[in-house]
Each structure stands twice: as structure tokens, then as C-alpha cells.
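Protein modeling request. Please complete all fields; requests missing the sequence field cannot be processed.
Requester role: graduate student
Desired output: 3D structure, C-alpha cell encoding
Chains: 1
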Amino acid sequence: MEPLDPVYTFGLYRPLHRELMALLGSLSPSDWLRPTVCAGWAVRDIAAHLLDVDIRRLSFLRDGLDPVAPGSPIRDHAGLVEYLNGLNADWIRAARRISPSVLISLLEITGPQVASHVEGLDMEAPARFPVGWAGETISLNWFDVGRDYTERWHHQQQIRDAVGAPALTSRDWLSPVLALFVRALPHAYRDAQASAGQRVELAIEGEAGGTWSLERQSDGWQLYSGPAGTPACRITMDQDTAWRLFTKGMDREEARRRVRMEGAAHVGEPLLGALAVMA
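Delivered output (279 residues):
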């Protein structure tokens, strides 16, 4: 087992944006109305959400605008999720007045500006906002930029799924996504009881996959790269299952059917509920 290295994704923003523009430009009028795995959201709604993601990053992180204050104090993770869901819903309702052509035109403006912004950041400096799904109170820019990359990637993939477009699941695209998603595991295991030194191993199969290990230590669970040696539970899944599991693309029962567990299943169970999105 080895310590985790940072995952740098700032160089992927421009090519991912080009893929998005080509995808949206290829859609028929009926494609924009196709339902997606995001409940209540059609393709047009995910495209509008991606525009909102751009606007928020430029406004809050590049330009220093303060976010809209919540109606009541945010006291816990559930309160933060409720606040963010409200912001998302407000935007989607308004954005349904925007035509696909206008959405594409606006994304053509915002996308390159976001890429320029992230390319100019000091990746080792503290980010303005921590990565909440990892349970962090302070995150470095490389992790915040990486979190944002995973959001852009998985929402574009949801559009591709909905319209039957080729997936962006080669190693170049998906490997950094998975390497960032697994950083949700220590937080997912925060309430899991285990003796010191107990380990859980996760092996993700496929060209973008890898192997990671969780170890219970005196102050919580620690994530490492590499196999665990003799874990209490070894969990194996393919890369398609992995990204869908971490983005709430399947429920726990489907996840249980799609993964293989060897050893103490109760030790592996918290992994089936791990999320790398704010939900």
C-alpha cells in the first residue's frame, strides 16, 4: 500500500469541453427531451446544469462573488445538500426558457473561460470551498478542480447514455475520475466499526481501473493506493459499475448484484453507499 498522489485534471478541461460541444451540436430536437438517469431531468436540463456549473465557477471562484445566502443556517451535510439542490432546481426551472441553440452558444463562451481559470490556479493552494463528499473541511485546488472535472465528466456521460452516443470511458478520461471518486471512501466508512489495522480492498477492473485499500487506524479510516495484502473484505467491480455507483446511478441493491465480495461482507457494505456527489 502506498500513499495517494494528487490527481491533476486542469489539462482535461479544454478537451472535455470540445467533446461536449461536439455532442450537443449533434443532437436532434427530440434528443434534447430524452429522459436521463437524473430523476426529472431531460438532456436539456443536464446541459443547462453544466452551464450553471461554469457560471458558478467563474463567478464564485474567479471573480470572488459570494454565493446567495441560504434562507436558514446550514448546520450539517444534509442542510448543505438541501441548499445546493434548491439552487439547482431554481436554475433548471428558469433555464427551460432557453433554447438548445442559445445554451450551446452560452457554453461556447463560458467553457474556454473556465479552462483558462483552472489552468492558472496554484494547484497546491487552498481552495475556496472544500470537497464535501470527501468529508474535508479544507481542500487544495487540485482536489476541488478534480471534483469539478468529475462532475463535468459524469454529467456529459449521462447525456451520452440518454442519447446513445459513444462513451468517454477510455483510460485518459475515466482513470482520473475513478482515482478521485475513491477519495470518498474514508468518509463513507466514518461510522463503520472495525479493529485497528483492519483493511478493505477495492479492485476496479478495466483499462481505467486500479486497486485501493482502506485501513482502520486510531483516528479513522485511511485510503491507500495498491492491494491490501490480507483484507477483511476484498471488493471487485468493473469500471462501469464503479462510476455509476459513486454518482448515484444505481441503488444499493443493484450495486450489490454487480459487485463481488470476498471475506466479511458486512465490512464491505459501507462501500456500496459511497457517493462522490453531493446527495
